[in-house]
Amino acid sequence: MFRFANPDQLFWLMLVPLLAGCAWLSLRNRQKALRRFVAEPMLARLAPAVDRRRRVGKILLVLVAMSLLLTALAQPQFGTRLETVEREGQDVVVALDVSLSMLAEDIQPSRLAKAKHAIGSFIDLLQGDRIGLVAFAGAAFVQCPLTLDYAAAKLFLDALDTSILPVQGTALEEAILKSADMFTGEKKSHRVLVLITDGESHQGDPVGAAEKAAEQGVVIYTVGIGSLEGTPIPVRDERGRREGFKKDAGGNVVMTRLDQGTLQAIARKTGGRYFRASPGERELIDIQAEIAGMDKKRLSAQEFTQFDEQFQAFVGLAWVLLVLELLLGERKRVGHIWRGRFQ
Predict the structure, then answer these.
(1) pTM value?
(2) Measured CA distances, 219 to 191, 207, 270 (Å)
């Protein structure tokens, strides 16, 4: 496999055709200047040793060398290798509510956008912990299995939105049980679930699910996001323009509000804590600090693919071409030119 680690640097390759054009103009102007003083047949007699092909060849060598050096700036990478990583930490699953109520704008720009940003910052704070993602609305599914690859986890996080699940609602019970199933191993410890939602559960028994999770050694931290007073849910068209607000079957505007009581009960059942989402995202910093203070375990080795840097080959070949350009003269061998003229 081949890729460029820094493809933006390939922009500099645009200089090569520009320099090629300048070199061509220089050669043409030089030839025109000579023809003003000497006719073409006489020029061949006066300067028989000049080899125009060599002159062009020297320019091509420089241009190719420059292309190779500029390509090296983009960090070409070939092949892959498997590298084993071992760390000590916790298994952490983040379950994010992606129901329509998370589009409410009582927290700018929206509850969901704010939650995703906070989770991204939380992932940056992790120190050797495995991270997994669960998305839920009317159903729950694993968006990202437990991994030590934080960059991959953030890519999965970016893909989350309210359209990812066709079934609407807020299935807190299923989200908790699905998250608990992600933890492996016989030892019922080092298991943390961070549940981020507005808490409006429309089905199941989330507190009962928390009891079952606690039996498996899962500690749940709940983060409530939204206002207590209630706010309407905006409805947007395909271009993202607001068309109005969501209404129920009777035509009344649906109001969504934070259910702190349910989230506090879930946290209590597992020995965790409830936090209210704040503009400064302090709550996730506090959660990470508590996770960092827990006893750590050696996590199972994770194998990942890494590309090998190959820019050295491009730089080496460029220097070879530049040396050849220096050694290559513009004139033919004089002995060959004068051979036979004095016989």
Answers:
(1) 0.62
(2) 6, 13, 5
